[in-house]
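Q: Here's a chain of 62 amino acids. Please give me its 3D structure as tokens.
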Amino acid sequence: MESIIVHTKNAMELTAVKAMLKEMNIEFEKFHMRNNFHNKKVVEKIKSQKPASARPSKPKGL
């Protein structure tokens, strides 16, 4: 079946859409986009880091 993504402007619109879907017995999934900007920054930081060295590390204290 086809999927759609709905971008509501506020909590009232979101509540109305959820209520309509529940009333019509339509299954839906929740997906949170909070901290999207922060998540992009973290992903870029991880990608830009140098890969770990190929040699095994020595245990300390021996």
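Q: Can you summarize the key feature?
A: The CA atoms of residues 55 and 61 lie 19 Å apart.
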